[in-house]
Amino acid sequence: AHTLVLNAFSDDTVKLVIAHTLGEINGSTKVLAKCNFVKAKEINDPNHGSIWKWELKRQVNAATS
């Protein structure tokens, strides 16, 4: 997951990476949390129940801003 995030952010136009998981603590949520994703929203999906939306925003480098 970390390598996928690095690959996404290697493109300067990418400002945000989004992921979705089932709405419960599990291996996927632990990986996302370890990669500094933040749970941004809970969605009620009619087919899958609770879905969590996770976001990771590009870090702004103070030296370049």
Q: How would you characterize this protein structure?
A:
With 65 residues, this protein is an alpha+beta fold. 25% of the residues lie in helices and 37% in strands. The protein has helices at residues 2-9, 27-34, and strands spanning 16-22, 38-45, 49-57. The model has no long low-confidence stretch (mean pLDDT 93).
Strand order of the largest sheet: 1-3-2
The residue ranges in which pLDDT falls below 50 over 5 or more consecutive positions are: none
Amount of beta strand: 35-45%
Shape: elongated
Gyration radius over CA = 13 Å
User: Quick one: biggest sheet?
Assistant: 3 strands, antiparallel
Structural class designation: alpha+beta
Number of helices: 2
Count of individual beta strands: 3
The ordered H/E elements are HEHEE
Q: How far apart lie the N and C ends?
A: 27 Å
